Amino acid sequence: MSDSNYSIILENKFDYKNTFYHCDPYLDIYNEEHINNYKDLDFIISSDVFEHINPYPGLQIAFNNMYKMLKTGGFIIFSVPYNEEEHIEHYPNLFEYTINKSDNDNDNDNYILFNKTIYGKTEVFDNLCFHEDPGSTLEMRIFSKKSITQYLLNSGFSDIIFHSINSDMKKYGIFWSKSCSYIITATK
């Protein structure tokens, strides 16, 4: 799931596809047809993806679909920004939305999110947080360690491990300096 860091190496060693939400090969984690195209997988790498997916129809559905894609004994290598305290959902009622550049000519990097909730209420948000280029990949949430664990458990995952930077990552040859986005593994 959009892991450009390792895809070339993995494609040479496995029957591996790096998927994308916006281009081919597509994978929308909420789309049942897409989920059915990727069944009985040995592993899934989801590197900083789930903080960007729409909260509608529900994050638990996204975790459940990831679980469905694996064969029994399959596993995930997963990372998302998270903190130890609380799960922060930036736009909990997001349904039909657009992101537009601000009309203020003096501020080229200012974007506005316009949302129409499922109940028809209009919401407007500014001070948006994008990963990578402004206007491209909107941060929808920051998970907590507790919320990630609960989503994974509710889906049926077991052997959930939050790998530490100092010991586990060096042991497995993973070098990740972001202390807010550790590598997590879990098994179906």
What would you say this structure looks like, in words?
By secondary structure, the protein is of the alpha+beta class. The chain folds into two domains: 7-86 and 140-187, Vaccinia Virus protein VP39 (Rossmann fold); 91-138, no CATH class. Helices cover 22% and strands 29% of the residues. It has five helices and twelve strands. It has helices at 7-13, 32-37, 59-69, 145-155, 165-171, and strands spanning 41-47, 70-79, 82-83, 88-89, 96-101, 111-116, 122-125, 130-131, 137-138, 141-144, 158-162, 184-187. Helix 3 crosses helix 4 (145-155). The longest helix is centred in the middle third of the chain and has 11 residues, at 59-69. It is globular.
